[in-house]
TrEMBL record:
Domain of life: Bacteria
Pfam families, per the entry: GDPD
GP-PDE domain sequence ranges: 10-281
Keyword tRNA processing: no
Species in which this protein is naturally found: Hymenobacter artigasi
Name of the protein this chain belongs to: Glycerophosphoryl diester phosphodiesterase
Sorted UniProt keywords: Hydrolase
PROSITE patterns reported in the protein's UniProt record: GP_PDE
UniProt cross-references to SUPFAM superfamilies, sorted A to Z: PLC-like phosphodiesterases
Molecular-function GO term, any one: glycerophosphodiester phosphodiesterase activity
Uppermost EC category: hydrolase
Amino acid sequence: MPALSHSRIPELHGHRGCRGLRPENTLPSFLHALALGVDVLEMDVVISADHQVVISHEPWLNPAICLDPEGQTIESSPTPRFNLYQMPYATIRQCDCGLRRHPAFPEQVSEPAHKPLLREVLAAAKAVARPAGRPLIRYAIEIKSAPDGDNVFHPAPDYFLSLVLAEINRARVSARATVLCFDPRILRLAHQHQPDLATCLLLEADQPWLASIQALGFVPTTLGPDFATVTAASVQQLRSLYPSLRLVPWTVNQPADMMQLIALGVDGITTDYPDRFLALTIG
């Protein structure tokens, strides 16, 4: 395979740290991703009953990967049994979410791990020295908001966003942070309250790119579509209409897909396997 020039290599975004290799959205996952050499740590945030910003993909304990506060397995049910928005963070922290290997990721190394606070992750990342010549780590923080979850699994958008922005600003990383969301309400509020903050509109596979950008009402910093929707034609059209809009598709785990997206000129790749990306780009 011919070597890639540095100018052709997109940013490496570690999805939930490095979910394919370590327990997702935990300190071990983020620290391992940093050790591998990601450019951006991608993570998800929810809110606890006592208004703490917690790193978690679901606003409940996922039975596939978490134990309950007593260390017992959680039975799957149509209605989540442990709603994090109804649990104080001290209780959430008692729940291990690292010992049970995610069934979809056989290479994942299991180890004890709790759901950390956003401020805990930002502090841990800050403490990790970057190699000489490498820029400071950046953060892609997805706010897990949806209209049907308001006041059930999370606060209403304005308060939810205010809690997250307070942590970003307190840590003084706003210049290196991007707020991601599938919920346009969050992004519109972020653009209104802190217009210098980078924003990323996330899209599911069935959501059209151009119509979704137009419906948002402003041009975000980044578009984050399902990688399967990225084609030469879609990229060309996006570049023509929005030349400054960055394109960072998710979640790309197979080397062949990574190479195809690199050839199409994406700006970043979000992956559960940073090691696979690095094997392609640096050998």
